[in-house]
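Quality-control log, excerpt.
Job 1 of 2 completed; input and output follow.
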Amino acid sequence: MRSWTRTTVKPRACAYAALLLLAIAACSNNDHSSMPASSTGSTTAAPARGKLIQSPVQRVGSYSPSELLALLAGSALGKTLLQLAYTPMCTIDVYHLEYDTVDPLGNLTPASGALMVPSGAASCQGGRPVLLYAHATQTNRAYDISALAASGNDEGLLMAAVFAAEGYIVVAPNYVGYDISTLGYHPYLVAQQQSADMIDALAAGRSALPTADAASTTDGGKLFVTGYSQGGYVAMATLRAMQAAQMPVTAAAPMSGPYALSAYVDAVFEGEVSLSAPENLIMLAAGYQNIYKNLYSVTTDVFNPAYATGIGSLLPSDTAVSTLESQGKIPGALFSATPPAPAYAAMTPATVPQNLAPAFALGFGPDYLVTNAYRLAYLQDAAAAPDGGFPGVTDRLPPANPKNGLRVDLKTNDLRTFEPTGPVLLCAGSSDPTVFYLNTQLMVDYWTANAAAAHLTVLDIDSPVAANDPYASLKNGFVAAKALVIAGAVAGGATDGGVLQVLEDYHATLVPPFCLSAAKAFFDALT
């Protein structure tokens, strides 16, 4: 579930989607000074879930509409954005939340995140909707979504420009394992723990309102939950947890998330290796081993001995993934190019679906992460206890009785038995080589079969435009954006017609602005 900040951002067609994408790129390289609030009068609260550790919260930045426009004008992409009639409506005050949540063992632990509060114009004050946002995969241990001027914080900038500057109060946790967290690992794709973190961040953010800097901006009572990639998964897990606790949610828009974890990882082991798979599996294994303790006795039970030492604490890291790769700590491939047994040659790598085959092939090589012995054991378990949604479709549910430790944990955290009771938008792209569309499709199939379809809106941003299609402009914009990527790749000397460049950009930079545009419109209609 690669973060959408790791590939070069290019200008797109379709004005609003271009606005979103350019807003990310334009803000990411600025030197706007922060405006911290005085620490005088701060207090230390007694530990409790969702309670602020520091109160009042620390303001770390303030951006008026003119200042935001000035920031945008400070880069080439920002200048392009200003030609698209983008005008921020509200002043934004950004706060660094520090609050107590729980770790996977139920112990209280500190966490942090961002609170973004609009003010200024009359339409930015009063009771405002709250947006609870879950961010995508981050490998940077120091990641702080409230640090808008920091390199690599495109999502924080996006939330500020597109939601906070349009009148939404934004709450966005960093998750435990990041920033001030004292937990030595990140509970990656652990539904119960990550949803608790989100709910506690929301409680902390709401308790900080109204802030002294925006005393007229209050919680209007409407709550929207969204997130992308890993954050799409976390958003859906959070919706499930809040619904079970009878906490009101106005609407949700999980985007391009790995909801059907069992089917998704089975597909990876069966040769459909996703982009960024090595780093994602390292983080997944670290979390599951720390929590469930059933993946291995020693790291070499799973990992190539060349990479096994210290791998349980490798990510997230203060060192960039590219540097870890150059240091020989992370390989380029997930699996050996040699099949684990002759029967698996056809899936080493998989060649179907054909349009994703070039991406799958990148997951195999002489320098690999997972041993053939472990891959074989996983595949044998998948054959003995098949998932109901992959490779064949039966009941579309996770496997009934897996024995492999990783598959047991994936089943525990699979979201396919959840049914929403309120409005939900699912948005993704059907040719995504990083988080496969089967995740979205299996959720849609389950909800349709269980009478939850009435609450569901589905957008495959990469599907053909239909008659009277409400998403026609976004879909046409997506086509145009892909064409720009192809043209740029060909102009740069690509000999494959830009195929690999589109695959590389697809999840990280092509899909996000269009899905978020759809989510914003979906929420606006309910405010």
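Job 2 of 2 completed; input and output follow.
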Amino acid sequence: MVKRIANRWASIQAVRNITILGLDAIAVVWSLNAAIILRLEGHVSGEYAGAVRIALPILVCARLLTVFAARLHRWSFRMSGLAEAVRLGFAMVGGSTLFIVAFHYASPLRLPRSVYALEFFFATSLMGGFRFGPRVALSWYFSQRQKRRAHALIVGAGRAGDLLARDIVHRNEGNYWVVGFVDDDPAKLHTSLCGKPVLGKIQDLPSLIEEEAVEVVLLAIPRLPAVRIREILDICASSKVGFKIIPASFAYLDKKFSAAMLHELSPEDLLPRDAISFDHEEIRKLVQARRALVTGAGGSIGGEICRQLASHGAAQLVMVDMNENELYLGARRLQTDYPEVRIHAEVADIREPARLKRLAERYRPEQVFHAAAHKHVPLMEDAPEEAVKNNVFGTINVAVMASECGAERLVVISTDKAVRPTSVMGASKRIAELAVRQLARSSSTKVTAVRFGNVLGSAGSVVPIFKQQIQRGGPVTVTHPDCTRYFMTIPEAVGLVLLAGLGGYGELCVLDMGEPIRIADMARNLITMAGLVPGEDINIVFTGLRPGEKMYEELLTEEEEQTHEVRNRVMVAKSPAPPVDLQERLRELRRAAEVGDREAILKGLKRMVPTYRHTPAQPLEAVPSSETQLENVVPMHKVLARA
């Protein structure tokens, strides 16, 4: 059966090759006759007629011989390109040369010299035309179809833009029709790339988007700085377009890059610093074959800690949380992805020391990561006793458990809100830092508190809330136009937590999160990235600072300013020792929390953290802005009044 199919295919190919050679012969005959008629203006005398009769078979043989030698009879009408065009050119020149030499020696008659040139032109046009014609026709057909796709403008007329445009142009089933490029290099203006013009500079994007009916802007500049991305978003703020960007790893992709690798522009691309890279072998050496226990494993940070521990070869992973649904789903995902890791999901409350002690006796963890906490600032302002019971005494329970079971290391996740706190949540985390550091002085367990700011995409954080508000049609609510926050991605934060917490650098490590970002700018950029216009399609509403919220976050107290960087993005802070009467103050705070005496709780927090300042809610008018003019500023109470 296979042999029969092979024979049939060979027969089809033979017929195809003979057909191509036959068409070439017809083209040669027509070309010579057309050339002699054109040269002699239709009056072919007897002498030239005799010369044509001798020349024609020689010319046909010469042309077919060179065509056969160049393998042009085996032609791919779909895949032909520049290399095939060069081969055709050499074959035509070779055929003309062979014909002239053979005809000179075979016949005493001569043809006008211009006939040779005309025949070469006609033959090359005909033989090249029917070879490349189908591809040109198909390209035209698909280009007309592509025009019905989303019109795209490529930012960057360099190598990346060229590869991207070529892939889009030659992809019959793509999603875009490239209208052109923009680039700030003056030498590239008004040139063309892949048949598409460089229409202008990046500053010209709004007018070009309108003129060319552009629907998506493709950012094709490798490792485009975040500040430049934000500038582009600001330039396009009045244009309803989507944005896609080439992957950050493009520099390593060489010529394998394609439009399929484009990804949606994300908040991570807006961070004012380079992405943090890790030596995964270093992390693996710290966690491989170890038994680990993670509290808050159902949350964003705790879940990512579990994932990275499993991916780097932890032998046993105990996932602890009160949210049984997220805990169950997370444990199932990890067990599926890392079947070699022994994974145990335990529903437990860190406020119950007896439960934690039983877990420690059962699993004997060598490394404990404490990520469980009440983190929502406004909620904890309304329930300070819960913040104290969970964030302070729950942390102490975890630390005691780690010490009593002989764990090698305890890593406590802290927050920048613990620095000069203005909220109950921040003060409770600051006290937790002090308590575990004091406990470490009498324990063989090495304790490290790791302090960092906001993480992008974590549950309840600002970016997911903004996205939900945009999807609902707005408004997007921002506390204050001048409010800034530090941001880091979840994988980045957790990778640094593992290195800082397990590296033995010190009791308090602080992650360098780069420059802070204005929340209002993040909101505007997210609206623009969604293809909408801030203030027109989606309003930005400023609500005023909520209870306990800061205008600006800090990572170090005044006493901790003496820090030194121990590795990239990780600093060790020289923090003052806990107060000598810390245990007595903790007992008083526990009694106040157990009976729900909120006034006593606030006094206790102030006594233990002298820099703590209780901050009530601040309406927008009560907080002066550094901007003289604020676009799209609408205080929330005025929005409600209109409603």
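Post-run check on job 2. The chain has a mean pLDDT of 81.
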